[in-house]
Amino acid sequence: MIEVKDLHKTFGEVKAVDGVSFSARDGEITGLLGPNGAGKTTTLRMLYTLMSPDRGQVLVDGVDPAVDPVAVRKRLGVLPDAHGLYKRLTARENIDYFGRLQGMDEAAIAQQREALIEALGMGDFAARRTEGFSQGQRVKTAIARALVHGPDHVILDEPTNGLDVMATRAMRAFMRKLRDEGKCVLFSSHIMQEVAALCDRIVVIAHGRVAADASPDQLREQTGESNLEDAFVKIIGTEEGLAA
Ligand SMILES: Nc1ncnc2c1ncn2[C@@H]1O[C@H](COP(=O)(O)OP(=O)(O)OP(=O)(O)O)[C@@H](O)[C@H]1O
């Protein structure tokens, strides 16, 4: 379980995250939905130990990354907003390298890597250098790399950004599979349909604050809108920055 308590982060004049609290449970997909610039990426970065909060606390299975960042990183698989693949390495080599960084032995790396290549449909390009990969191929490689050590929790920053319809469907199916394995899946998106299609729980973020935190059904109920898209617009107060 991932818990976020009263997180704050300011960059100069910009209050990027202004008191965000929520929980993401194991065996559920939690979506952070918000318009461009709402503070989603900054929140996730504090969660996966890339950035420290000015104030507030993150707990991953009760462990605070400010106290034990290595223990937290072992529990997390992270697809960051910039995928940063090593372009001279093949997809397989990129995955293996991360397994070694996690201290795994070669047999375990090979087994996990091939299972992920199969699950993500990467067989056609796994032996190629990542230089020149399409967006979908890059995202898949970055996800396989993030999951090679078998983390309990998965954090994905805009996982379907730039993917075509087929790749998006495959990514959604993969996220459901992770959820059904009991993992805690937390992802960010500014695409309402995405969140509506996938999430057990939706945390709506606007201007660095949580504007709503509920299941899709509860959101419909709370707003009195049967259509989730209308419910989101009502909660956020504007359609700006949200893609249907
Ligand atoms: N390193 C930084 N330095 C200065 N400002 C930043 C930095 N990171 C984020 N910001 C600002 O903080 C605010 C929140 O940005 P953030 O990237 O968290 O939003 P987001 O919800 O992920 O948006 P998007 O959907 O566009 O990716 C924005 O105004 C952004 O310009």
UniProtKB/TrEMBL annotation:
Keywords per UniProt: ATP-binding, Nodulation, Nucleotide-binding, Transport
Superkingdom of source: Bacteria
Annotated Pfam families: ABC_tran (PF00005)
Keyword Cell wall biogenesis/degradation among UniProt keywords: no
Gene3D superfamilies: P-loop containing nucleotide triphosphate hydrolases
GO MF annotations, alphabetized: ATP binding; ATP hydrolysis activity
Residue stretches making up the ABC transporter domain: 2-232
Family listed: Belongs to the ABC transporter superfamily.
Protein name: ATP-binding cassette domain-containing protein
Record organism: Oleiagrimonas citrea
